[in-house]
Request: fold
Amino acid sequence: MQQWELRAAFARSLSEMYGTEVPAYTTLLRVSAEVNADVLAERGAEAQRLGSIERVTAERHGAIRVGTPSELRQVGRIFAGFGMHPVGFYDLRDASASSVPVVSTAFRPLEADELARNPFRVFTSVLVADDRRFFDADLQARLETFLGRRELFPARVLELAARAESDGELPDADAAELLAGATACFALSREPIDRAWYDELARISAVAADIGGVTSTHINHLTPRVLDIDELYRRMSGLGITMIDEIQGPPAWDGPDVLLRQTSFRALAEPRRFTDGPGELRVRFGEVEARGVALTAAGRALYDRLLADVDTRRASSGRPRAEVAAEVWREHLPATEEALDRAGLGAFTYRAVPGVPRPGSSDVHEWVRAGAAVREPIVYEDFLPRSAAGIFQSNLTDAGRRDDAHTGAARDAGWMSDALGREVADPIVRNEELTRASLQALNLEIS
Reply:
């Protein structure tokens, strides 16, 4: 099995497992497929502007949490076996009003052809146990001792993943063993939980308890992609499934969809075994996403300014966020892909149209206008810290606590790269490389 086949099989295996653990996830998949089919029937080829229906239907992004740099490095080795590389750095500690003491990256394919074959992503968070806003020295020491005693990833799984990474493939028998072993690493453990220890961490952060209060890791959500997230939200609510209060990310509006919109059904109470008897926890939820056009560095800077503008207007007016955001988007964001491109805000590639006379200009926009080249949007393959934190926060029953009199522990993309022993790719730089390569292939430039 080639790496992309391993990756596709891994996504399917995790999805099947998660569906047995969280039955509402199966409902989410069914409704997502129904919405996608309806959108395809209504919009035709336009519905596949940001990816074929086959890709969209198969697409998943998972989320896991680990406790230490060592665990992070090991899980990076496993994902590398499936052709998934760390992309982006996300600090969720200050992105939410709730206590979320983690930093994150996402593992996914890098190359466009690999993304087209299977774009499986896993958003991976690691606890920041030395951040004094959340953990004092005594709790940090006890937490690190607890985490140091556990083994999340068996040596055999790590060995097979390393071979898959180095060889780019595995023989069928080894592939089956890797898939079974890696999937089992992310299954919900049935081992009894120390209630007192779990509750001590939960008083600070439910996320910290989910990471450091148990002896294993697990899939927190497995996210399908939908072509109309507003319709998905309506249909899930109509089935009596409790959704979070709002869709995270950019608003619905009449212009191009950009970046990422996400929502989820609320975390469900799941029976769990405790050392002092049965209980239940609410830590896993069903997320769904709609992906849009990636933005350039200038586009992301504008996006951040628009978010700040939305916050300011909401504070003074009290109007619903979706209403205010749509208003801000109409005022400041170009209303077409062409305008988004010409303003240098959207990320695109370009390809020549055979048989069409080439303009004398070297400006790619002139080629597109003359029909000699086609502008193709780069899909946003990554995540938004505020949206991710918003999903986390919306599924917490308690905001936890933090002491901002203390200084937070320093974390950045360099720290993440060092912890992983692998370079964390910058998604904006990666998209710039894709744009530049497409222009070089045509011997063109952007004016």
Notes: DSSP finds 18 helices and eleven strands in the chain. The chain has a mean pLDDT of 92. Residues 262 and 289 are 4 Å apart (CA to CA). The longest strand covers residues 60-66.
